[in-house]
Structures are given as structure tokens and as C-alpha cells.
């Protein structure tokens, strides 16, 4: 049984490698001094108090080279001091040609091409979880939570910084309050620490503590910060009250809404933080990039709601959390669309469930145990029907009150390994379905950090009215993680009842897939290349029940970047015939696609230049078939000045003669030959008056048509073959589609105080979908503009209140 095999492997590997050791490397130590009076944070580190601080210098290269000493012309020195409230950081960065220092004005967490200084702080010194603070040469702040190689820039805390520049270089001062950090409550602190300087115009990055890129992860190479003692974690209570005004106009109707609410952050103790949103307002989230979706799977979107992106690294363990499930389309939405009786019209049928409140608690103890708890509740949704003859109305519940929960336990050890247990569950009051998923995960490195063993075992349980469905899935991977030559072997399995779609997302189940890869890469410049990587890969996909092959493929890939930051690469693969069990939308039925090959290539020029571009081309061709795919992406960018930047993207795709699902009757699955064409134009422009005020324009127009060839309709038969039939097309069952969507956002953002901001947003949106696939681009665009446009103007103001500042104010 797969379950027994997976549990055996988990227990075996866990016991075999639970005593792995840390990466052997020489570690720098910095001893911080306590001060009584704090320095002025003005970007000019000439206060006499800085003379008490030791120098952290002798930086070495991490990119593109490996350990080369920083030139004297760009010598860099960092200093740290601390008091009862915060740590203070100063950096002195020499520059022999100050006019070459790249300075691009950006908003928070956006670095673009500015040069910057950063400090990584790991308060538990576990080699994995750390907080990153960055200041650019123009003074822009960026902060992130780091977990291994993952950088979560949705994480935002309040801290101070300032920069200055003169003929000798540029300078940074930072004040990081203890309220922005989580650290153990003990007399002496031992923190992992790393400094880095990005010299963009030299295409070089230097760090204080040496990093061996050929072994392990960069987060495992921090230096050690000592000297900090007898500090007490402050009361970490921050309030973010907000108000929003919205004016919405659509098709002659005008609505005005006022909303007020609050987000809250509270430090439960030195390790754990409670995040809560009360009366949430997501009216100013970015628009979703909706496309014409004719496939068997739902379209997924990125998360644009800050509460669901910030500090969620624990909840994403095992990929069981797709946050867009919370507040998504009610389960009974489509049923209500179909169930209108004769002479009835639908007056209301909400396409989103209202979020009532949400909270998350997360943190990590000084023993390396991470604990996360997430909860969200959405309101009941109903469809309203009205009889057009009698005027009577009736309601149908499309989703009951839903409760979403996640619990995660993640034990880290040896600065490179972890074992995790995670559970997600959704309860819907028994009206529709309840879901529960439990996963056991491990990610373990051996003694020399040369091999990684990763595995997952997941059990799902779905309660439907009158039915209980249990499923299982597993993943096992062994990877070489040291040296120039690396390789990987993995297996991914799921039985036919595995289902995590109540709070997660999985498109397919009932598979038993094997994959492998091997590569050669360099870690320091060689010849004309700063780095390059050559790889081979392959896969063999199988159905679990019945045990039959689905596809086998093999390919190769290349990536390279020259010393002048010109990147290029691509991949090429060949594949056997493919049994697609999902396109037919019927159980135990598949369509057989011919063997095919694909070619992918891209180039990317130096972003440091005023003008740069990216080009990507993809082509797929099927053997002994007219079916093919072609995709082209062009993305030029132009930096008009240090304040004004614009990026345009054009995408074109054409799918030719693809056998595609059309309809299903009681005894037939109907297919047709489809051509699909898509054109997308998007534009993103920013003008930043300074690092706290800026304008942003986001525009996207997506047009796609799907045309089915006349007299090409077939019935899907056994063994994936198609048999021609006479299928009558009417206005009701016509599968052709013409899809047009237009979105424009223009916003002004003003960060008027630390942690506080006001955003004025104008939004314009138009949508049109019909069956007129024969129309060309211009005609379709004319039809789109003939539709009523939605105009939305909103103002949202958020104010940051720190309990400690308020307390001190009242004490004064």
C-alpha cells in the first residue's frame, strides 16, 4: 500500500538524519555595545555615539564571484549599537565615482535598480528564519520575512531609516525597534546577523560573513551578534484603524459606500503574534488577470489581500492553503443559475462570500518549534428569485456560514532541517460539504549538507450529504545539493479520492508520477559568463487506477548570464502520446493526444540601462497532426528618469486544430476541432515624487476568441479515439467564444507617517463575452466599448497606532 510505504520512508529518513550537523564554516562575530542616549537618525553617521561601536568590515563578494575582497575604492563598514528600545545600524559605503551610484525613487518594498544596504537578523540563530531590512540609495525601505530561500515582502513592520550622499560615497542609518522583532526572553541574546551591499552599477553584491554558494542555503551563513543583554521584549500592540469612501457608477446606477474597520497586531509573548482583521475592506486590491478559460480546471489567481499574504510562511507548508478559497464563489452559485423556474428571474446571486473576520497566530519558540493557527469566517449567502407573473420571491442558500481553520506545527533543527504537521479544515454547517486535510512533511539534509531528503504524506477527508470520501497523497524526493553537478529523483502519488479543494487547490488526482533531473552549474564567473546552468530532465506519468501510462517525456535546458547582465536560455523536450483524463469531463475516460515536442527560448537585457527588454517564445508541435501551439511575449521597459518608469507587455498566443471538449449528453462526450487566439496588452507606469508619494498606472486589455471548425464534431470513443458525428449547432449550444476584458487602475499613494498611508484610486473596467468569434480585434474592441463601463473612485486612509508610543505620550 502507498500509505505504508510512505510512512516507512518518513520514519526511516527522519531517524537516519536527525543527528545531522551544521555547515562547517568560519563565522564572524560582532559584539554590540549598549548606549544610554540614541543617535539621531538622519543618514549622517557622524554622531559621537557611533565611536562606541565596533566596525564590521572586510566584506567579500557573493555575486557574481565567490569570496573576492571588496575593493578599497568601495570599502564598506557597518556598525551596531543598542539600548532598551531598539538596535541602531549605521553603514558607511565608499564610492570612488559617486555619480555612478544608481538612485531610482521607488515605493516601499520595491528596489528596482537602486543600490542598497541590507541587514538580516535571525533572533533565534536557527539558520532558517530571519527578518530582512533594506534601505536603498534613495531612502526607500523594504522588509521581508525570510524562510530559507523564500522572501516574503508582504511582511511589513514600522522602523526608521535615513540616507545621505557626498563626494566619498553614501550612508545609511537605521533604527529597528524591538517591537519589530521577535526574540527569546532571556538575559543574553545570541542572534544570527548578515550585512550586504548591492553595488548595482558594478553588478556586484558583497556580504560581511562569507557565503559558500555551492553548499546549502545563504541563510545558513550568518555571522553571530553578541553583546545584547538584559533587554525586555516590549508590549507588541499595533492598531491599524482605517476608513474608506467608495463612489461606484455602473450602467446609470450610482452607489456611495462608507466603511470603517481595524487591523490589529498583538504580541502574545516574546515568540507569538496575533494578527486580526475586523470588518475587513478589500475594495482597493489589484484586479485579477482574468482570461478566457475553456479548460477542465478553474483559473487560479494571485492573492492581492494584504492580510492573506503577510506572515503566511507557516500556513503555506505542504501547499494546502490557497487563500483565495476564503471569500470565494459560493458552492451553490452555479446551481442557482440553473435552477430558476419557469417565469422566474434571478434578482440577487452573490458571486463572492463576505468575509466577516479573520485572525492568525504565528511564531517560533527558542527551541525551534514554529506554531501557526489561522481562522476566517465568511457569511451566509443567498440567491433571490422573483416570479415575473405573481411577483412572489423566494430565497435559496448558496453557501452557509463557513469556518476556515489551519493549524501548523513546524520543528526546525540543525539549522537546515524540519519536520512539520499541518491540518486544514472547513466546516459549512452541514448544508454543503465539510473538508479536512492533514499533512506530515519532512525536509532533511545530511551531515555534510550534500543531500536533501524531502517528503510529504497527506490525508484528505470530505463530508458530503450522505457521503464520506477519504483520499491520500504522498511525495518523496532525494536531491544532491552540493557542488557543480546536482541531480534529483522524485515520486508524486495521489489516489482517486484525494481532494483538498475546500481550502487548498489540486487540479488532478489518481496519479503515480516519477521525475528526474541532472544539471551542471558554475558558482563564480568563467569566461564571458557570470553564471550558467545546463540541465537534463525527464518524467514518466502514470494513472494509479487503472495502472496505465499517461505520458513519458525527456528534455534539456540552459540558462546563462554574461558579465554584462545579458541573460538568455531555453528548453527543448519531446513527449510520447498523452492520455488526458480531464479534458473529457467524464470519469475513467480519456482523449489521446499525439506525441509532441516543444521549444522554449528567452532573452533578457540589462535592467540597469535606460531601455531594456524581455522576449520569450514558445512553440509546440504534434507528430502526424496539424495541432500546434505558439506563444510570444514582448516586455520592453523604459526608465525616463530616476522618478519615472514604464513597462509595457504584449502577449500573443495561437492554438491550432486542438481536439477539445464541447458538450456532454447522457451517453456521449462531444469533441470538436478548436482554434484559439489571444492578445494581451498591459502597461504599468510609476512616477514617484519621493519615497513616500507616488502615482501608479496599471492597465490591461485581454482579448481571446475560440472558434470550432465546422463539421469537425466527433464522439469520444474507447481508447481515446474520436469518431465523426453529425452534431447540430444552435444558439444555445454554440461552443464558440469571444472574450474581452479591460481594466485600468490609477492610484496616488501617500505614506504620511510611519505605518500610515492614504490611497486615492480610480478604477475603470469593461467586460464583454459573446459567441462572435469571427470578429477581428478592432470589431471586438468596438463591441467592448459599446458596453457600459464601471467607474469606481475610492479613498482609503490607514493610521498606525503603536501602543508604546501612546503609552509614553500619556506618561509624558
UniProtKB/TrEMBL annotation:
InterPro entries: Carb-bd_dom_fam9 (IPR010502), DUF5916 (IPR045670). Residues 233-810 form the DUF5916 domain. It holds the Pfam family CBM9_1. GO terms for molecular function: carbohydrate binding; hydrolase activity, hydrolyzing O-glycosyl compounds. Residues 41-195 form the Carbohydrate-binding domain. One of its GO terms (biological process) is carbohydrate catabolic process. Signal peptide: none annotated. This is DUF5916 domain-containing protein. It comes from Christiangramia sediminis.
